[in-house]
Amino acid sequence: MTRDGWTVAYHRAALLSGEGSAVHPGQMTPHRLSGGDPPGMRIISGWTAAIALLAALALGGCSSEPPQCAALNSVRVSFEHLRDTNVAQNGLDQLRTNLTEVRTALEELKADLHTTASAQVDAVRTSAQQVRTDLQAAQANPSGPRLGTLRASLLNLRGSVQNLITAVSATC
Q1: Are residue 84 and residue 150 in the same domain, yes or no?
Q2: Residues near 166 by Cβ (< 8 Å), separated by ≥ 6?
Q3: CB 78 within 8 A of CB 105
Q4: N or C: fewer beta carbons within 10 Å in the chain?
Q5: Is 7 helix (H, G, I), strand (E, B) or coil?
Q6: How many independent structural domains does the chain possess?
Q7: 118 Cβ neighbours under 8 A, 6+ residues apart
Q8: What is the reported pTM?
Q9: Strand runs (DSSP E) across the chain, as ranges?
């Protein structure tokens, strides 16, 4: 016997055995005889889930941020690695590795910028080349004056990077 697709006999048996109430027998939600879920309790269909997934992927791929913003962030992060290099602990070789990282990120930024802020990019490139030269000299003869010159060129590079960040950040 069914009433609105629900098994009345099941409810009656559950009620008489003390397993639960007439609405929901203990630990179980009754199912319709037709095999579907009760109205209003329908599981999200496969189509709905697929459409939601496609919409999320499509919206996730949209970015209003220009490509130079990601490249600028890469320059910023690589410069932070260079700035945070502990020469006493890691040596000048780590400084060289981090300087190469800055150079690579700078090349990517220059490619994304085309002509915008090219003067600032060139200033950073020149400062980075000076750091490289001073680094090679310090590695060949690690004296106080050479390390002082390297420090001064690193400070100059920091100023150039800050100018570049200021100029490019306006477009992001």
Answers
A1: yes
A2: none
A3: yes
A4: N
A5: strand
A6: 2
A7: 110
A8: 0.56
A9: 2-3, 6-7
